[in-house]
Amino acid sequence: MNEELDSQLSAMFDNELPTAECELLARRLSRDEQLQARWGRYAIVGAVIRAERGVRLNAQVARRVSVVLRSEPALAGPAATGVTRVRNGMRWWQPLAGAAVAAGVAAVSILWLRTEAPSGTPSTVRLTPAVLQGGAQMHVRNGGAQSDSYVVPRPPTQPRPALVPSTELANYVVAHSMFSTPVARRNLLSAFMTSEPAASGTEEPQNNAQSTAQ
Amino acid sequence: MSADASDLSLVRRVQRGDKGAFDALVLKYQHKLVKLVMRYVRNPAEAEDIAQEAFIKAYRALPQFRGDSAFYTWLYRIAINTAKNAVVSRDRSPIEYDLDRNNSEESYDMQGRMKDSETPEGLVLTDEIRSTVNAAIDALPEDLRTAIVLRELEGLSYEEIAAAMDCPVGTVRSRIFRAREAIDRRLREVFEGGLGRAEELG
């Protein structure tokens, strides 16, 4: 055994060897029994200098641990590095996953807007993976013959309360805007909107219009 | 160079499936760990059993060790917990050994180990190792002895020893190495020489 190697071993024992040299020597140490024996004697020297009373210097702990671990599976290399691998994998997937989620949200938003838009007929939309990921409800036509398309559900028969004023109301407001103040118009509009579900109607606006015109 | 570089290199090797690297870690720390455990249990044989258990637990938990702390600090915590648990469990079943002695094959092994470890031969061997090392240290030149003692007894880094001895770090490294070599030559005679008990020494 050469002196330089022994010197390195001594420094490594003290955690004073540069990392790169540690890597090489650790590899050799794990395989070379003579080197391990010397390493073990260094530990004994330390124990004697520290006067570790009660500790038996011929302790069999190392041998017993080694025997027990012989029947244990090796740490699948990789057990620890597996964590790193998973993390790296996550890093690779993160942009794609982010893009997919964003596309899904965008698709759902578009679908929602389209269902809100006044439309009497269902509209067929090409199905994209992003839409699928977004979790949009799907209706397959013709037993799957057009499985890559779906139908935007028809709006319910009963008109849903909407924040958008009806066309009649809009026309009314425009037509009478010349004769009313902005505050009055806004109040009128608010009144219509709050009474919209029940009214959807035209009676109140007409009445109000008359009073306003007067 | 990190303060824990060599331990970490060995740990990384174990994590990649190299059990031999774990043997090196056990060899390095077995005495320290037994000494630590002996704060909780007085019996050296029991302390060795607990230290062994702690090492095995550490091996199994090593995939989770990320190197945020020094390996020995991590091992130290495992050993303390193992020792505390052992004491609690022993206190709960004070006659465990007596029962096991009659019934269990496993306890027979343990009983045998305890017996073996307390043989007069074992005690003589420990004394012989201790006196050999002490004699070798006494025979060292002053500068070598000071360097190795500052390192092993005081736990100083090479840089701190260099400052204390007013010499370059490289000289400290060389002095510690030469001190160890001189002691090791004498120690090997005990291990490999006339006693014929080299295989008994962990």
What does this entry look like structurally?
A two-stranded antiparallel ribbon of chain A has the order 1-2. Helix content of chain A is 62%, strand content 3%. Chain A is mainly alpha-helical. Chain B has 202 residues and is mostly helical. Helices cover 76% and strands 0% of the residues of chain B. Chain B contains 10 helices and no strands. Mean pLDDT of chain B is 84; it is low at 96-116 and 198-202. Classes of the chains: A mainly alpha (214), B mainly alpha (202). Chains A and B meet through α1, α2, α3, α4 and α5 of A and α1, α2, α3, α7 and α8 of B.
List its traits:
heterodimer; A: 214 residues; mainly alpha; two-stranded antiparallel sheet; 9 helices; 2 strands; B: 202 residues
Widest sheet, order of strands of chain A: 1-2
Q: Helix share of residues of chain B? A: over 70%
Number of strands of chain A: 2
Distance between the termini of chain A: 115 Å
The share of residues in extended strands of chain A comes to: under 5%
Regions of chain B with pLDDT < 50 over 5+ consecutive residues? Answer: 96-116, 198-202
Mean pLDDT of chain B: 84
Strand content of chain B: under 5%
Quick summary:
The complex is a heterodimer of chains A (214) and B (202). By secondary structure, chain A is mainly alpha-helical.
Mind sketching the topology for me?
The complex is a heterodimer of chains A (214) and B (202).
Chain A lengths: L2 H11 L5 H11 L3 H17 L11 H10 L7 H39 L7 E3 L2 H6 L14 E3 L15 H9 L6 H18 L3 H11 L1
Antiparallel strand pairs in A: 1-2
Chain B lengths: L4 H11 L3 H19 L6 H18 L9 H22 L3 H8 L1 H13 L2 H19 L3 H11 L5 H8 L3 H24 L10
